[in-house]
Design goal:
Number of strands: 15
Strand content: 15-25%
Largest sheet: 8 strands, parallel
Mean pLDDT: 95
Helix content: 25-40%
Distance between the termini: 38 Å
Low-confidence stretches: none
Strand order of the largest sheet: 8-7-6-15-14-13-12-11
Structural class: alpha/beta
Radius of gyration: 23 Å
Shape: elongated
Length: 424
């Protein structure tokens, strides 16, 4: 997570008259500096010439993890829209694409080891999938823009689509008296059979090979225990193991999963419920907070010593009338009661666009420039706290994105951009 993105930009300074100079220690710093340079260029209305003012900038991000989450399971998102969104991310200096690629509704990832997962789990297995070539193209496109791609394969819950292709992977649910099967009733992954872990070991070995980033997001959120509680075999397992609660079944599963992922030399991110349920996880686990009140959750997770990400205040699928970007702008990942050491454990956050009501037709406009507010919060100094002062910058940046082919929606009521009549 420690990308060095610092850069220095000099334009027509006393030391460097009539010239520009960009200095950075890494290619990532150069990319951020070039983006800044591009945003400093403006067109003179009278002459039509492109100009840039004299300036000196020393710049670096406040947080090292500045992410965008896209959900491509609830609605399929075409590859070209994902690529467009990566462009927009680079214009806003986001550096992590959190790809929530599969979930309950569909499994669009085409696995090499288990092709039946997408054949039977995708909405439609010919056009509504991401082939291995698609994934490689997306990873390379992101890399060239200084963006890491962190895939999420959420288990043991949110796995209905997995069960279509892998028989006996999911837990069979019973009536609460344990006497009758629930027809087509399946719950989370079955945590007590060896075949589960044989599958996971092979599957995550593939994921570790395909996705080159150091991190894999393992999910772990919203695990319903009711199906496990109804299943006679799992009830017997709980009794034999002297467990006192089904959170210990979850802990048993998560522990084995983390061991499997550790075998691939990858690190992992999980959603906060895993910790909330008192599941024992490794010290180097990264925990993502998405449930409010976020201040309480951030204090709790960091008090346990975990590296932490914030998502709770940046759920872009929650829409409201008016300039809701202002609420995103004032949300600060380090605003909670904790020690300085705790706040240092918060390394960034993510703006999340879940896909219940989003697909390729409206994703870009729904995301931008609302996500830009989170982007400035995660990059810029903590002293920038005024939405009123940020509004003109956001309006200008929205027009800039329109000129670059990103159909960002109006953020602040009536107005216009010079190029908005060209939008298609």
């Amino acid at each position: 997570m420690g990308m060095d993105e610092m850069y220095t930009l000099q334009i027509d300074t006393e030391e460097l008259p009539q010239k520009a100079k960009l200095i950075a220690s890494t290619v990532w710093g150069l990319l951020r500096g070039l983006e800044t340079f591009s945003q400093l260029v403006y067109k003179d209305r009278d002459s039509g010439a492109f100009l840039v003012n004299s300036t000196f900038i020393l710049d670096f991000p406040r947080f090292t993890h500045r992410g965008i989450l896209l959900d491509t399971s609830r609605h399929f998102v075409p590859k070209h829209v994902i690529l467009d969104n990566l462009d927009a991310m680079s214009y806003n200096k986001f550096n992590v694409f959190h790809w929530h690629i599969v979930d309950d509704p569909s499994f669009p990832y085409q696995s090499k080891a288990f092709p039946e997962l997408s054949q039977k789990g995708a909405y439609e297995p010919e056009h509504h999938i991401y082939t291995q070539d698609d994934v490689i193209e997306i990873l390379d496109y992101a890399r060239r823009r200084g963006i890491r791609v962190v895939p999420e394969f959420d288990t043991p819950g949110h796995t209905t689509s997995w069960g279509n292709g892998i028989p006996d992977l999911l837990t069979q649910c019973y009536t609460m008296d344990g006497d009758k099967l629930v027809p087509n009733g399946f719950g989370p992954i079955n945590p007590i059979v060896n075949s589960t872990y044989d599958f996971l070991r092979t599957f995550f070995k593939e994921i570790a090979d395909v996705f080159v980033d150091q991190y894999i997001h393992l999910g772990g959120d919203e695990v319903s225990f009711s199906c496990w509680e109804s299943n006679p075999d799992i009830m017997h397992f709980v009794n034999q193991s002297n467990f006192t609660g089904y959170n210990q079944v979850e802990s048993y599963y998560i522990s084995k999963l983390l061991d499997i992922v550790s075998e691939t030399d990858k690190s992992y991110i999980i959603w906060q419920e895993v910790v909330d349920n008192d599941v024992k996880v490794k010290e180097d686990t990264v925990v993502e907070v998405w449930i409010s009140p976020q201040e309480k959750e951030l204090a709790k997770v960091t008090s346990l010593g975990y590296t932490t990400l914030l998502a709770a205040c940046w759920y872009l699928d929650y829409i409201s009338y008016g300039s809701d970007w202002k609420t995103y702008y004032v949300c600060d990942p380090q605003q909670f009661n904790g020690t300085a050491a705790q706040k240092e454990l918060v390394v960034g956050g993510e703006a999340c666009l879940w896909g219940e009501f989003v697909d390729g037709t409206n994703l870009i406009a729904r995301m931008w420039p609302r996500a830009s507010a989170a982007g400035e919060r995660l990059w810029s100094n903590a002293s920038l706290v005024s939405p009123q002062e940020a509004e003109s910058r956001l309006e200008e940046h929205r027009c800039r994105m329109l000129a670059r082919g990103i159909n960002a929606e109006p953020p602040s009521g009536p107005g216009f951009c010079d190029v908005d009549y060209l939008v298609t």
